[in-house]
């Protein structure tokens, strides 16, 4: 399967239906208020709880990452995809456990995406594997990786607090967790009928933070099952709840199904920063959220289990979160 390290396909119609989808008003989280200790943090924690429970995503303002760092990462991504084929080819491999992997095999079918994936934390351990071309890639993507991780850690602590578990619930496990960057490139849509860039899926992990160069993301409204396009104002970050947070929350929060469509005016790059526990660390439903009325709904699993799941799921087209549901058919 050419799919991502992180994603698992579900509910996939092959092409986007004609007509413009409605846009969804995203809940907005003021990150600067999470730094405060008074009632304004608690008010934001309540907003986080509502967003995670109702739609599984939100947008973040006042996160403190400068425009130049965000634009630098997007231009480094763009320059990588425009670099000579030979420099990209060295990262092409069917082995999903490689520290860096480039794939453009989705091009030309009925969907269209090239991507580069690599781990990013601890940076000093992984950066040596990243592309050398363009020369600014390591510096600019490295700066962004460090900054976005700071935001991600703070958001994950806030999410734990919003679940009533307390922000220190996982001890140092979040700090020791993985960060994986999925750097995506999509062509501009043409008249050829190809409109889908990335199939519907939910992301592995606790949260994904997405930075795109222009619109193209759609999320499925969990209540109506209708696709909604996401408007992401400049300088905001878009956050998705992932499969492992659904499992930890014992289903209180729902992983969000999303896809990318091609933009009719521009080619597009996006950077998805995926955050979760360490490779072999098992995630299980929090005991505090399990009782007689709410029995544990998910099997325990780790990122390693997810990597093992991908090839075994090659022909079954099952989503990872469905495979974790207790009582689900094998
Ligand atoms: O490019 C996008 O808008 C979505 C990317 C995405 O969902 C992913 O990389 O998992
Ligand atoms: Fe995704």
From TrEMBL:
GO MF entry, a single one: oxidoreductase activity
UniProt keyword terms in alphabetical order: Iron, Metal-binding, Oxidoreductase
Lineage top rank: taxon: Eukaryota
Oxidoreductase in keyword set: yes
Record domain Fe2OG dioxygenase: where: 176-277
A Pfam family that the UniProt record links to this protein: DIOX_N
Transmembrane segment boundaries: none
InterPro entries: DIOX_N (IPR026992), IPNS-like_FE2OG_OXY (IPR044861), IPNS-like_sf (IPR027443), Oxoglu/Fe-dep_dioxygenase_dom (IPR005123), Plant_2OG-oxidoreductases (IPR050295)
Family membership noted in the UniProt record: Belongs to the iron/ascorbate-dependent oxidoreductase family.
Protein name: Fe2OG dioxygenase domain-containing protein
Organism classification: Eukaryota, Viridiplantae, Streptophyta, Embryophyta, Tracheophyta
């Amino acid at each position: 399967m050419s799919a991502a390290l992180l994603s698992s396909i579900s509910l996939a119609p092959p092409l986007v239906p004609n007509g413009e989808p409605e846009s969804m008003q995203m809940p907005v989280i003021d990150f600067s208020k999470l730094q405060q200790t008074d009632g304004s943090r608690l008010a934001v924690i309540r907003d986080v709880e509502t967003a995670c429970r109702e739609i599984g995503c939100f947008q973040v303002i006042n996160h403190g990452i400068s425009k130049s760092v965000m634009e630098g990462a997007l231009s480094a991504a763009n320059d990588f995809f425009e670099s000579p084929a030979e420099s990209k080819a060295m990262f092409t491999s069917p082995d999903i456990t490689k520290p860096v992997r480039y794939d453009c095999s989705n091009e030309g079918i009925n969907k269209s995406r090239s991507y580069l994936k690599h781990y990013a934390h601890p940076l000093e351990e992984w950066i040596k594997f990243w592309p050398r071309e363009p020369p600014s890639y390591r510096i600019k993507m490295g700066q962004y990786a460090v900054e976005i991780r700071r935001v991600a850690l703070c958001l994950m602590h806030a999410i734990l607090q919003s679940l009533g578990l307390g922000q220190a619930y996982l001890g140092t496990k979040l700090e020791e967790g993985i960060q994986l960057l999925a750097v995506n490139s999509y062509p501009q849509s043409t008249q050829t009928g190809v409109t889908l860039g990335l199939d519907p899926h939910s992301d592995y992990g606790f949260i994904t933070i997405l930075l795109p160069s222009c619109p193209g993301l759609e999320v499925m409204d969990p209540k109506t099952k209708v696709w909604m396009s996401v408007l992401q104002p400049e300088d905001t970050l878009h956050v998705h709840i992932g499969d492992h947070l659904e499992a930890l929350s014992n289903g209180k929060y729902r992983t969000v199904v999303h896809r990318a469509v091609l933009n009719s005016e521009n080619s597009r790059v996006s950077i998805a920063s995926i955050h979760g526990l360490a490779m072999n660390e098992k995630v299980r439903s929090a005991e505090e959220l399990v009782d007689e009325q709410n029995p544990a709904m998910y099997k325990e699993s780790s990122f390693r289990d997810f990597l093992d799941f991908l090839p075994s799921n090659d022909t079954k087209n099952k989503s990872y979160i469905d495979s974790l549901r207790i009582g689900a058919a094998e």
